[in-house]
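Lab meeting minutes (informal)
Scribe: AK
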Amino acid sequence: MVVDLDGSLLRGDTLHESIVANLRHPLVIAAAVVALLTSGKAAMKRRLAQTGRVEVALLPANAAVLSLMEARKGDGGQVFLATGADSAIAESVAERFPSIDAVFASDGSTNLTSHAKATALTAEFGEGGFDYVGNSQADVEIWRRAHTSYLATTDRSAAAPGWAGRDLEVLADPGPTRLRAWGRELRVHQSLKNTLLFLPLIAAHEFTNVFAVAATLAGFIAFTLMASSVYLLNDVLDVNLDRVHRRKKSRPVAAGWIDPLHALAGSLVLAVAALTLGFVIGLGFALVLVGYAVLTLSYSLWLKRITLVDVVTLAMLYMIRIVAGAVVTGITLSFWFTGVTLFLFLSLAFVKRYAELHSANGSSRRLPGRGYSGDDVHAILALGVASGMASTVLMAIYIQSDAVSRLYPAPVVLWLVIPVLFLWIGNLWIKAGRGQMHDDPVIFALRDPSSLVIGAVVLLLFVVASMPVTAELFGRIASVR
C-alpha cells in the first residue's frame, strides 16, 4: 500500500508548514523564492526543508489513514510513503510512523507529484500493483493506475467525487465544519473584550448621544476585525507551541483543520478591512487602531517572552480599547479613571499569567514560549493582588474627584462600590488559585455568574448615584439629623 502525505496521512500540507515555520526568518523565505524562480518547486521545498524548523512529530495525522496503515502492516503487508514533500521531511515522517517501510519523495530537482509520482510508482510496482491513499485531484492519475484507491478526507459527509474517475473508498477523519472551524479560529467570543470601547461613553453619561453611540459601534467592529486578524497571525506563528499546550492544541490551525497559509491570508484580509473602516471613522482612531495592531504583533513575536513586560503589554492592550473609545467619541479621560482601569487591567493580566503557572502544578520548569517558570508563581500572585488593591484605592480617590461630583448628584452612594470591587477582585484571584480560570480574565468575568451579579450591583449603584431623587433623599436624612 502506498500513502500520500499532505492532506492524506497528515491533515495539513508540509510545504505550507515549512513556509510558516520560517516566517520569522525572512532571508530563508527570500532564498526559497529565488530557488522557486530559478530552479523550480522541488528546489524551493529543499531550501525550506534544510532549515529543519518543521516539527514533524507535532503535525496532526489523519486517524483513519493511520489505522488503515497499521492494519495493513499487521496483516503482513508493506506500507510506502509517496509524497511531493522534500525527502528530508518525508524521512522524518517515516521515523515518526514505524509502519512505513520506505519513502518516495521530491529530491530537490524532481517534484514528485501527480504524473511524476504515478510514473515512479508504476515503475516500482507495476500497473495495478499497489493500493493508493490520496486526497486531491493531483492524485487522479495515480488512482487510475492503482489496484484499490482510497480518498482521505476530514469531511464527515464526503463521498467519492466525480472528478476521481473511479470508485474510491473513503477514509474520513471527521473534524468540525468549515464554518465552525473558522468561527473558533477567529475567536468571535473574544469580541466581548472590545465592549471596553463603550466604557468612556458610559462613564461620561453620553450613552444617549446617537452619534457617539454609532461611532463607538463602528469602532467596536473595526477592533473586532483587527483582533481576529491578530488572533489568526498569532496562531500561525505559535502553531508549534499550541500543539504541545493542553488546551490550545485543539485550536483549528494547531489541530490541522485550517491550513496555516489560509489563516495567514485571512489575517491579511481582516487587517485591511479593519484599517479601511478605521480611516473612515477618523484619522485619530485609525492611528490608535494601528498602535493596537503593532503592539499586539510585537507581543506575539517577542514581548510575551519577556518577564513582566508581557504583563504590562497585556494591560496596555486592554487599556488601548478604552483610549480608542475616548478618541472616537471625543471624550476626555480623567486622570483617576485612567488610573483605576490601568491598575485593574494589570491585575487581570497577572491573573492570566498566574493561571498558566498554576496549571503547571508547581513545576519549576519554564513555561513554553513564556518568560516564567513555576518558581515565579508567588511573585506573580503578590504583584497581581497588589495591582488589584491599588485599583480599589484609586477608585476611592476617584469617587471624591470633581468629575464624579459633576456627574453624580449623590456620589456618596458610590462608596458602596469599593467593597463590591474588592469582593470581585478577591473572588477572581481565589478562583485562579483553585484552577478555575481557563480563559482570558475579561472573557471569564463576562461569563462568570458571580462576576455578572457583581457587575449588575455596581451598575445599579452608579444608576442610583446618578438620580437627583437620591440626592434629595440624602438631603432630607441629613436635615432630620
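Next up, CB showed the second protein from the same session:
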Amino acid sequence: MNLWKISLDEYNSYNNRKYETLFTLANGYRGIRGALEFSSKGSKGNYIAGIFDKSQSQVTEIVNLQDPLGFNIYIEDEKIDIDECGLDSFKRELNMYKGILYTSFIATTKKGKSIEVKCERFVSRNKINRWASKYEITPLNFNGKVFLENYIDGSVTNSAWDVMNKTKHFKVKNNYDSNPGIALTVETNDNNIKVLELTTLMGENEKGNIFKNRKYSEFGEIVSEVYETFMTEGKSYTVVKYGISISDRDRGLKSDLFTAGTKELKGFMKDGYDVEIKKHIIIWEKIWNEIDINIDGDEKAQLGIRFNLFQLASSAYEGDTTVSIAAKGLHGEGYKGHVFWDTEVFMLPFFIYTRPDVAKALLMYRYNTLQGARKNAETTGYKGARFAWEAADEGIEVTPKWGFDYDGNAVRIWTGDEEYHINSDIAFGIVEYYRATNDKEFIVNQGIEILLDTAKFWQSRVEYNKGQDRYEISSVIGPDEFHEHVDNNVFTNYLAKWNIEKALFFKDWLKAEDNLKYKVLCSKLGLNEEDFNEWEIIYKKIYIPKSEDGMIIEQFEGYFDLADIEISKYDENEMPIWPDFKGNKLGETQLLKQADVAQLMIMLPEEFSEDVKKLNYEYYEQRTMHKSSLSPSMYSILGLAVGDRQNAYKYFMKAIYTDLEDNQGNTDFGLHAAAAGGSWQSAIFGFVGLRVNKEGILNINPWLPEQWEGLSFNINWKNSRVGISISKDKIEVNSTGDLSLIIYDKKYFISDKHHLIVAR
C-alpha cells in the first residue's frame, strides 16, 4: 500500500460523483472537482472562493462556474466516451504528496479501434490562477486521423442533478479566439463579478508539433477549438492543456480580465508545464513538512489521516482574508458553499498549530464580515454582533428557511434563527489563536473588537430570571440539532459565559497595554464601565442545568424528562441505526445528533473535573446517533481523556474515513471539511493528549493504540517549531526556541534548539 496515494482501480459511473469529490484538486483560491473528461456522468464543479450569487435560488450560494476541463478525443468520427466504449483497463490515482491527479485507461471504440490515454492534472500551489492537464495518447491498433477538441462549457448550472432547484448563476459575456487558445468570460447575476477561463493546447512528439489544422467554433454557451493530427500505431503523443482562471475580485488586478489572463497564459506557456509542476510539487513538499502526521504500524490509519490533511491544506489560502472554508470545502455544492462554526471549532486548530498564517487569514474573514454580523443583530432586535449561522461573502445570515428531514419531508430550518452559539465559537477561535501564536497585532487590532462585540450581543440576548436570580437564554438550538427551541442549552450558555469573561479579560489587558486604543474601541462600540459592570454580573449568574448531585450536565433544561430510547443496532459502517421511537417524535427523545455536552468538555477541558467528564461521556455517548460527521472525532478525543480507548480508536477511524468510506452517505456533495479538521484534533488532542493549561503551558499525555509503533508530527507554538515523536518506550521533543512543556504531569524546559528525551 502506497501511503501517499488514493486509488480507484475500476470504473463504475454510479460512483463518479463520490470520486469527483475525493479527487478534487484545490489551492484555497479555487477548486476543480475530479471530473473525468471522457464521461458526461457526474457533477462537474469549478469553484472560486468568495464568488457567490443568489438570483433564483433560495439563498445565496457558491457559484459553479464555467467548466474549463473540456477535452475530447475523436478517432475519425468516433468520440472516446468511456461510458460507451469498451474499457480494457482503468485507473485513477491521487498523489497527495505531490498534489497531482492521474488517470489512465485503454478504450476500444465500437469500430474496434483501441487507444491508451494517460492523464495528469494539477491546480498550481505556486501561482494560484494556473492549472493544467497533460495527456499521453497512444493508438494501439490503428493509424489514422485523430481530432483533439479543447472546449470551455458556459452552460453549467448549480444543482444540475436536482431539476427543481437547478439554477444558473451567471451569463456568458464574451467568447474569445486567442488563436491559439480559447477564452470564455461570465458575469454573475447579482454582483456582476466577472470570471475568465482561458485555455490552450500544445501537442508534440519526438519530432515537435503534431497539429496539422485548427478550427475555432462557438456553440451557444460553449467555445471550442479542434486540432487535427495524424497518429501512428504504437507511438505516443503528448498534449498539454494550459489553463488560467481569473476573476475581477482577484487582488492586484491591474488590467481587464482578458489582457491579464492572456499575459498569465503566455507566461505559463513560456515557463512550461514541467517547470510549473515542479514548483507546485516543491510547495506541497513544504506544506507536508508542516502538516504531516506519521503513524507507524497502522497503514489504514496513516492513509486516512493523510487524506484529511491533504484536503484541509487544499481548502485554504492565506492570501485572501475575505474568504473562509466552507463546510464542504471547495469540493462541491453541499450546504451551498456556506461557512459554519465548522471553521473555527473543527478546522481552525489544525491551521493554528501547523500553518498559523492561514489561521489568521481565516479569522480575518470574520473581522471583514463583522459589519454583516452587526446587521444580523440589528435586524433581529439585538445589540453588538451576531455572526451568521451560515455565512457567505458579506456575513449576512444566509441559512435556508426550508429543507428536508431524514424521511424526505419538507421542514422549517430553524438553525439560522436559533443557533446562536456560533458567536462564542468564533470568540473561542480567536482566543485559541492568540494563546498559541502570541500575535499581539491581531488581538489588538481585530480580535478584541470581535470579543467585545460578541459579548455585547450576549448582554442583549440573556434574560434575567428574578425569581431564581439567574440569567437564562431561551429558545435556542445547540450543536445537537435534533432539539429545537430549547431553553438553557448548556453548550450555548456556558460558552456565552466564557465569551463574556474573556471579553472582560482582554478589555482590561488592552486598557493596560494601549489605553488610547481602548478608549477609541469603546467609543466605536458604544461601551462603557456600566456595561462592563453588568457583564461581570451576567457571566457569574448564567444558568447551567445539572443533575441533582451536580455531576451530570443536563444538555438543556428539561432534557432529562424526555423519553430515553436505547440505541441497540448498528449498520455495516458501525453507525447507529434509528431505534423505535415508541410513539415519540425525535425531539421528544434523548437521542442526540452529535456531540453537545461532550463538545463543550473538549473545548474547555480545564473547566470540568475528570470525574465529571467521565460520567458525562458515559451518559451521552450511548445516546448519540452521530448523524453529523462532526461527532465521531469529538467522542474519540473525550473517550481517550476518560479511558475509553477501544471506542476512541473506533471513532477516530470513523472520522478519518468519513469521505473515503462515505459513512455519512453524502460525499457526492463535497468534502466533510469539519470531519477532516476533527481527524487532526483526534490524533493530536486525543492520542497525543496535547492541550494548553490555564497557565498557557503545553501539555502532552500520550496514549498509542496497540498496533501503533510510533507517532510523530510538528506544531508551531509561539513562533517556534516543535517536533514531537512518540514511540513505545520514549517521547522525543525538539524545539527551535525555548519551550516549557508538561509531559505526564512533569514539567520540562527545552532551551533553544535542544532535544528532550523522556522515557515512557
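CB comment: Residues 177 and 274 are 26 Å apart (CA to CA).
No objections, moving on.
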